[in-house]
């Protein structure tokens, strides 16, 4: 029994508080004043869809496609890819891309009280991940913490169109800001605005496919003793009894009312992903394992071993907005080296 895994994650150099940059080279909070600005490039992918690449002054990078507003790649300053993408992923509309960070929002079935992850449907994760977004030319001003020297950022927006009313009978605007910091931290801030004349409800998840060495070497920390809804058992509610979560078979759970920091440690790679979130009370943990992944056409053989989805989410209770209201959900992802 390892005590450190039985407690909620506390602020520390490994898990610094939200917005505090830890300089892992100098082992102290980062002084950002000394860095030049980050930069961005806009180009087209092989299917003619625009994409944006953010570069940090220390050479970390993130690539965001306007197809789904989806982060497709996030690399360290050494060029190591941190996100999983299936070798069988399909990159053409209308299919969602298997990997990266799909934005799962505006669940078609939400208004009918069937919640996120609980129903087999093409659109169970919402349709915005299958739509072409645009660059937001007039984004809201950056928050003080977002404008730190050395950050690179991009603002995207998806505004619902008449055709979307076939899937979801409300008008909305969904904005996404992606920020890559000097040290390669990736922050995603989403805002959903109700531009309809009636209230609406929706669920949300940053469906984050982390790349891992081997799923059997991975543990998720920070969800111990919490309640979860088991998607494999009709969303029945259980209380986690164990220490950190480890993986020996298919897992598809929604941990509810979690703390705002969760860690995903990869023993073999000696690294820990740190997920910090705001406005997103739940965490979805998903690995399809062998049998389920064989049934998914855009999943390669044995690829389940090298991915784990840990999503900052709002799914147990949908978010309800009146006309004119705006909701914000934010996640910050970073990776630290561990010594074990
Ligand atoms: O194939 P999709 O729509 O991307 O979903 C993948 C998985 O995503 C997880 O978040 C859900 O909990 C699972 O139930 C689901 O199977």
Automatic annotation (TrEMBL):
It comes from the Eukaryota. It catalyses: alpha-D-glucose 6-phosphate = beta-D-glucose 6-phosphate. It holds the Pfam family Aldose_epim. Its EC number is 5.1.3.15. InterPro entries: Aldose_1/G6P_1-epimerase, G6P_1-epimerase, Gal_mutarotase_sf_dom, GH-type_carb-bd. Gene3D superfamilies: 2.70.98.10. Keywords: Isomerase. Coiled coil: none annotated. Belongs to the glucose-6-phosphate 1-epimerase family. This is glucose-6-phosphate 1-epimerase.
């Amino acid at each position: 029994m390892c005590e450190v895994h039985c407690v909620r994650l506390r602020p520390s150099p490994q898990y610094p508080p939200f917005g505090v940059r830890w300089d892992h080279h100098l082992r102290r909070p980062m002084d950002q004043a000394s860095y030049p600005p980050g930069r961005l490039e806009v180009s087209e992918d092989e299917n003619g869809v625009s994409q944006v690449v953010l570069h940090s002054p220390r050479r970390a990078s993130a690539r965001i496609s306007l197809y789904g507003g989806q982060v497709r790649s996030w690399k360290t300053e050494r060029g190591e890819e941190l996100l999983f993408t299936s070798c069988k992923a399909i990159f053409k509309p209308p299919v969602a891309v298997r990997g990266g960070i799909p934005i799962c929002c505006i669940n078609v079935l939400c208004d009918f009280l069937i919640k996120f992850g609980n129903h087999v449907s093409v659109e169970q994760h919402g349709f915005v991940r299958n739509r072409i977004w645009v660059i937001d030319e007039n984004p809201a001003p950056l928050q003080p913490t977002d404008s730190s020297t050395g950050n690179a950022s991009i603002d995207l927006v998806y505004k619902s169109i008449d055709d979307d009313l076939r899937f979801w009978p409300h008008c909305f605007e969904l904005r996404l800001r992606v920020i890559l910091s000097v040290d390669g931290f990736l922050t995603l801030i989403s805002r959903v605005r109700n531009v309809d004349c009636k209230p609406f409800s929706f669920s949300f998840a940053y469906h984050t496919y982390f790349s891992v060495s081997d799923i059997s070497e991975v543990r998720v920390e920070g969800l111990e003793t919490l309640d979860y809804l088991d998607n494999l058992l009709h969303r029945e509610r259980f209380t986690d009894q164990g220490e950190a979560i480890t993986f020996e078979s298919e897992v598809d759970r929604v941990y509810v009312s979690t703390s705002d920091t969760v860690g995903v440690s990869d023993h073999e790679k000696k690294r820990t992903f740190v997920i910090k979130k705001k406005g997103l009370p739940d965490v979805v943990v998903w690995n399809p394992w062998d049998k389920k992944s064989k049934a998914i056409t855009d999943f390669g053989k044995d690829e389940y071993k090298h991915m784990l989805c840990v999503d900052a989410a709002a799914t147990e209770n949908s978010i309800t907005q009146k006309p004119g209201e705006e909701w914000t959900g934010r996640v910050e992802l970073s990776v630290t080296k561990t010594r074990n």
